[in-house]
Design a protein that fits this description.
- By secondary structure, this protein is α+β, with helices and mostly antiparallel strands.
- The chain has a domain of 161 residues.
- The chain has 9 helices and 8 strands.
- Strands 4-5-7-6-8 form a 5-stranded mixed β-sheet, with helices on one face.
- Helix 2 packs across helix 6 and helix 4 packs across helix 5.
């Protein structure tokens, strides 16, 4: 499986690099919605650990023999041999511990686990830090927009003094968080419609998928860039969905709401928030 992961990482890196190069053309001809789905397909491919076979190769090259790292009994690396069976009986003071392939696999596995745990624990700590400062908000605007968007069960709405920008968090029971800023009814409608669009599209799960793909390929810098670009296009596609078929006045109000929401503060990878696309744009 490890060989497949490295081969997939290499082949997908070529695809990602090509997409980055031609992105100025794609951005003009295709909306963020299509880029959103392209990154989704690539993320799914990066997670699936198998390679596509195209039949028997015309030339077969012999695979290198398995190598083994040999350690002294005190635990100090001594040598690398071609095969475990080649260790002579006279080497009683030495014991084969792990093959090179197993060593690389262990390094990859530890890196993937650390990467994933870092994001999960950061998310858990973020929730624990902000939830004591959250208070329930009751507004008819939420029910109004939920009905307009044909959402059967909407997330709960809270106001939190520990965040600077509105956001949505939570996989099983998502909640929408508002900062302590004063919002007009129009601004509140924009914020709620934006976050409910994310909710309807299950974008928090999309973000989780990106993090899993990134953790599997933590050694590949292009996957980090892909994840950042995908998060940016996720927000842009949400913006496009919110302002679709709206007049210029609404678009201006929406832009002003984004500028107002673009404040640095407490956040987490597993969240959606207004202005996230513009903020990620600064990375490129």
């Amino acid at each position: 499986m490890l060989n497949n992961i490295f081969m997939i990482s290499l082949s997908m890196s070529a695809v990602i690099l090509i997409l980055f190069i031609i992105s100025p053309i794609l951005n003009k001809r295709y909306s963020a919605k299509w880029r959103y789905f392209v990154w989704l397909i690539l993320a799914v491919r990066l997670i699936i650990p198998f390679k596509v076979e195209f039949g028997k190769a015309p030339v077969n090259l012999p695979a290198p023999q398995n190598q083994t790292v040999v350690f002294r009994t005190e635990g100090i690396p001594f040598a690398i041999v071609e095969n475990r069976d080649n260790i002579s009986p006279s080497s009683a003071d030495y014991a084969p511990v792990i093959t090179i392939k197993e060593l690389i696999g262990a390094i990859w596995g530890i890196g993937a686990i650390i990467f994933l745990l870092y994001h999960i624990l950061s998310y858990i700590l973020f929730k624990r830090k902000i939830m004591p400062y959250c208070n329930t908000v009751n507004t008819d605007i939420l029910q109004e927009i939920t009905a307009d968007m044909k959402i059967k069960s909407s997330p709960k709405l809270f106001k939190c003094g520990k965040i600077a920008s509105p956001m949505m968090i939570g996989f099983i029971r998502p909640v929408i968080l508002l900062s302590d800023a004063d919002y007009s009814d129009n601004e509140l409608r924009i914020i709620l419609k934006h976050e409910l669009t994310h909710y309807k599209r299950c974008d928090l799960w999309y973000k989780l998928l990106l993090v899993i793909a990134n953790s599997v390929h933590w050694f590949n810098p292009l996957i980090y860039l892909m994840a950042r670009r995908a998060n940016r296009d996720l927000e842009y596609s949400c913006d496009d969905a919110v302002i679709k078929n709206c007049d210029m006045n609404y678009r201006k109000t929406y832009s002003m709401a984004i500028l107002k929401a673009m404040k640095k503060g407490e956040t987490t990878t597993f969240s959606t928030y207004l202005g996230g696309g513009a903020e990620n744009e600064q990375l490129y």
